[in-house]
Amino acid sequence: MLFNSTGFLIFFPLVVLGYFWIPKKYKSLWLLGASCYFYASWNPVYLLLLLSTAFVSWAGGILIGGAERKQNRFGKKCVLAGCILWNLGVLFFFKYIAFLTGSLVEGLRLFGISVRLPVYDVILPVGISFYTFQALGYLFDVFRKEISEERNFLRYALFLSFFPQLVAGPIERSKNLMHQIREEHSYDPKRVKSGLLLMGWGYFQKLVIADRIAILVTEVYEHYTEYSGLQIGFATVLFAFQIYCDFGGYSDIAVGAARVLGFSLTKNFNSPYYAVSVSEFWRNWHISLTSWFRDYIYIPLGGNRRGKWKKYRNLLFTFLLSGLWHGAGWNYVVWGMLNGLYQVTGDLTGSFRLWLGKRLRIRRDCFSYRLLQRGLTFGFIDFAWLFFRADSLTAALRMLAYGVANPGLYTFFDPNSVFGIRAVALTEKEFLVLLMSLILLMLVDGWKRKKKDIREMLDRQNIWFRWLVYYGLIFSIVLLGVYGPEYNASTFLYFQF
Amino acid sequence: MYRRKYHVKFVLFSALLFAALQAAVLLLYPSNAIFRTWKCFYSLEKDKIDILIVGNSHAYASFDPNVIREMTGKDSYILSSNSQTVVQAYFNVKEALHYQHPDILLLEAFALDENDNFRYGTATPDRDWKKESNIDGMRFGLTKLEAIAAQYFPENWSYALLPITRCHSNWADIETIGSNLFFYTGGIRQYSSFHPSETKMTEETKSLYDTAGYNPGEKVISDVNLLYFHKLAQLCREEQITLFLVMAPMYDGYIRSINYEDWKGKLEDLAEGENISYIDCNVSYDEIGLISRDFEDAYLSFQHLNKDGADKVTRFVFSKIYED
User: What ipTM is given for this predicted complex?
Assistant: First the structure.
């Protein structure tokens, strides 16, 4: 079930009403049932896969806890290794086996060896990367004694399958979510309103911005030979906002939906395009995944405590894994590596840049410097997005080569069309809506970055103003949103991971 | 107290939102006839209508309520739309009966023509604006829900129920918004459910018809159309409404180009089976006094009458009905 489907608009109010209406002891069961229905509405068979992952990691947690009490360190490690093997094995089978066999065949062909490997044409279960990582995070936390194991399977299954964050995160930590599942959440209209407002903002990002940009980006990326380098670049700039609004919008809907029910989920984005460096960008982009990699991969590898070169090795390895997590394709690997390399290069050239800045008397404590830093950071990040968006590494490289060979200055500045891009993609009015929406997005992000609480700001206003904002938000979604029967219901981009 | 305040505000907010969404639909809905025809129908005084006419474009182009009133002193209303099938006609009549109770129902026979672009077709999607607009114009109620359930697959019910999902992207269409504004701020008072053509058939078009070849293809009445025709006849019996099946005239040059005898025979059998009167204007050309210039200027389509032709046909059909 998609958040932007009419099914969800019926499902969600029913779940909320039921949740606050039924007795406390059945609340978790109610949410678990709703979560299973939410997942099964996509593919009922894969619900079994989700539940089996839940069962294995739940049982693993209990065994690890038991081994810990018996001070059986070896047994504890064996159970953890077994659970990791199971979880990653399932993930590998569904997500990576086709990539691996394909790459192997292609690699051997380079050496003149032709082999035929079995083809596993399996559908990728929605959200498998998210719930697998959440389950692994729980096991690591139990192993490290950061939390005690959950003995109630229903509660644990709800932790793993909680519908707002089930298919595209945030990847919740057991330390944050598990205790909330045990607590009672009473009905609080103020909190419900706040959750609904956040959901509204999420829908705005998804339907008004991301899905509008998607029309143009898809047109340019699918027919890039009909466009110039500048136009491809322009589409890639817009894609940066598409993926942000798509995933950020989903996260806001997820956090808002959970808040309505009384749960507090991890904030997943924090004005990432205001970052002044790539490492800052990654601290503010997909925070739940970045912190997962930091806590369970980067730091256990040694983090930055074992010298410069090991730090760089750890960083590159972590980003390589992050790339692979996003997708089984070489373009994702390159995307991950590029982001790792940016940070390594940034670190390596840090003292030189400082020296150069001093020599050139560049002021660092002013708006123009920050603007330049933000512009450069965005440029680097956006260049990497090209690999992320392209269908394959070959396609990305071809696009790059084609774009450099055909910059197309004249067509880009053709006064008779919007950046020379076919009107079939977006009309001038659509562009105007997009531009205004992006300005609003960046304004809101700017306020967030300055730690301004927009909901609090709104609450201080008179009722007519608040309602005007609420109606404005609802009507922009309803009227300006890209949806409806003619619209090819686009799933959220991160569902594929 | 704190919660009650929130709940009162919530109810008020939702009511205003609902009203605003309704207004948005009225402003953004494509300006097609049946949506407006429904709006105008609901504004009529209760039980004012004596004669109700349903069917496709032949119905709204062939029968003039002013002429009917002049002839019989009775009020009539046309609830027809482009390509309306008997399925839609049935639900329109069912909905109309909540507000009006006519003595006579006239079904224009083209509504029984095979039209595959509806729910029961397999080759086309489960959407058609002609079907949608019949339902969109209806007020929310059991009949509307029944019409949706009968004509849409379940996965499309939400779209059928919420026209805003289909017309929201008209926000940039100033012409539609302007036209709707004009309609709801005054135009509704002058609105007529009769939509005659203003053009007349030219000699050039006439000659094209005269040279058209013969198409012996069989006219098929689908099972669905048959089913709903019988349901409509049953509804009329239950409500004590006299049902007439009327075939509007087609240009004789066109009739000669199709297998009309077959089509006519099927309709006669159908009417006889339900014990209702069948009036075929195509066999009474001379009696009606039709000439080529009584038809609109269109080539090789299901051509319609123009205003002059509608005047003649209305007089002929209603003299027959009241003669009976």
Answer: 0.76
